[in-house]
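Why this split exists: single-chain examples teach little about how molecules sit against one another. For that reason, every record in the complexes split bundles all components of an assembly together and asks for one structure covering all of them. Below is a record exactly as it appears in the raw files.
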Amino acid sequence: MSFVALTKAHFRLSGGWRQNLLIIGTYVALVVALASAAYCATNPDEYRVVHGTFLILVSVVQGGLVLLVAPSAIRRAVFRDFQSGMIESHRLTPLSGLSLVTGYLTGPTAQAFLLYAVGLPIGGYFARAYGQSLGIGAVSVVDWYLSQLCLLTLAIMELALVLLVSLATAGRANLMALLVFFGVFVGWGLVRLVPGLALLAGLWSAGRLLMNLLWVPYAGARPGNPAAMGWAMLLQLAIATTLLVAACRKVRAPDRPAFTVRLGLVLLMLAGLTLAAGLYFADSFQQRPTPVEPYWEWVASATVFVLVGLLPLSAAAAERQRQDRRLAWSFSTPPRLCRFDALPLLLTVLSGALMFAMVPRRLELPSAQLSRVGWPVLAVGLSFWTDYCVIYLARSRGRSTFLALVLSWLVLKALPLAIEMGMILIAVLTDSSRVSAGWMAGLSPVGTMVLTVVGSDSQSDSRWVLIGGLAVQSVLAGLATLLVHRARDRLLSRLGPARPVAIP
Amino acid sequence: MAVDKLLVMRDVRVHYGEFLAVDGLSLELEAGELWGLVGPNGAGKTTTLRAAAGLVPISSGTVRILGWDVFEAPTVVARHLGFTPDNPALYDGLTVEQYLDFIGHCYDLPPLQRAERIDHWLEVLWLRDKRTAKVSSLSRGMRQRLAVARTLLSDPHLILLDEPAAGLDPAGRVHFRRLLASLRDQGRAIIVSSHILADLSEYCTHIAMMERGRVIRRGTVAEVTGAAGQRQAIYQVRLARVVGDAGRRLQALPGLVHPKIDGKLISFEFDRDPTAAAELLQRLLAAGLPVAEFRTLEPDLEEAYLRSGIAQVD
């Protein structure tokens, strides 16, 4: 129970029992005062409205506490420990990675979770009262507690993610702000494009239950798909566990990638399962026809899978670079190929498997044309290899792997697509009859996916565009390989002959 | 597991990007040894200590504490290691006692033992009156002392101190020197990085001089200052009054080299052997010189450092 040390310290730093009990007392008093005032001002026949309103308010507070306040508290605590150097002090103690991570999860968030716990019976009371006034009795109470359970599993995953990102960025990256920004501006679009995200974001579990609970009089429907809720909670907890294992590693070894190759592959498998489950359950939640064409869901889900694949890829490239440096310093020649170099191939096989598996649900390709999916698989393979080289080069020069990857994706993957879209836009605006053939998009693996599902095999142009794009991507991958070999040779040549080392 | 070396660093290299901060450093410490690490800013002293504590990754080589690899078994090593960085980390929002209690808790010390040790170190480090004070209210010197208390609370075998005397007042420095000497005599192995060479020569058993990430000179204090292996020592004699023919009387004494007389102060080189020195003192008195003070002048660590030709790094 050594994590209690850190939990206790952070709880004390957040004011200790005295301040926290004061806050809890104030919260309860406020709710009681507001509810009493509302009851007094309302006709007893209309109490249903009061119950419903307070149920919404308490739900919002509950969600805010565990999805906004608690993650922010973790980030602040990690940031403070990095700024003050206490994180190094923790690393000098015998506390294991698990103890430190558990301490960060429970200490800074104690205040938020105490208020959340107090909110449970308050919400339960309003749910029961609301259910009774609607004549559905205890069902609404069960829904309330179920929705809170779903909210909790979602919160656990979010807390794990925020903790990992905070540890990896010394608390500087404000993931919460990013999530809120995406939630407000592009969240719904993303969720429509990648149904797996809706599953993870709790929209089909906590969100669905709360909606059903609050909108019962209007919707008159019971929760949709219990299987989707079960999968959502299971996947959230599995992903949270994987992220926490990575956080345990990162907190004690900040110089190493959070994910080992094996752990990255576990997360990738879970991501694949989530994306596939998202597509599987999408039909039972999304009304058809949706504004999103099914093949866009296929492209977006495959792209997300490739992005998650960068985690094990980074670990492999970093390990390869460390191994080369270690061998070079012991005056041995690093091998031309090693087991880490096989990872891009493994990731390509996994991506291909997912792409083919998703075809029947999202692409209405006739079986004769199924081989077309081979084009994006090839492009993804080249992309993985190029990124593997980019990460190796960044690490050998002491640069940020993350920045190198962002640059690689912006220049090699996003820019060709942006130029292509710009050309299409210009053609549309100018009513030009010359529509782009997709040459620019073909330079990007994401573009290759799009061209594969949008184009038709009968158009010979489309095939040449794909071949041309893949040729350019192959040249880029070859160039990256050449640079890696040069970096490896430079490492060896810089060392020179062995020097005697004085040992007392 | 029986190990005679508390710390073994072999051929350690540390890179920051492409910059080589520590270059092939090897160091071994036994119980009761107190090493002083000296060198200009940027020589790699702090990086060496941080590598020994497992806080910075090494590019090559090994670091073992009590036989355990610091990077493979960090939580095991942590029980035997105490490290005070140059800028100690503390929780400003806690009181001194709460902070030390938290540290003791991290080391799984039982509550009673925790309380005893906190009492002990607060007493030893002059912080007893500050027990309930917030860490944020402490002066720099007090924070430094609290950081040392944090380091010693777990009763470590190996202690690494980076500029521990910075921020201490003169009385604090004297007190701290005695504490280090006492820890050394208890059989702990200690490395101290410091720019205060006069202090180091007083309590260190060994000195390592670093430049550009490499140890360029090492050995016992006497070896580094050049005193070891020399048969002659410099003696200083203070007379009770000025003696007019002191020079003539000194010339009559055999074995004295380069005698210099400056009023009541006489210096010369003579055999380092203590028996010979005792006989010389008797002969000086017999020669009618009113000796008020008689002592050897050991070579200075500061002089040795300046003589070593270590370049200042900007």
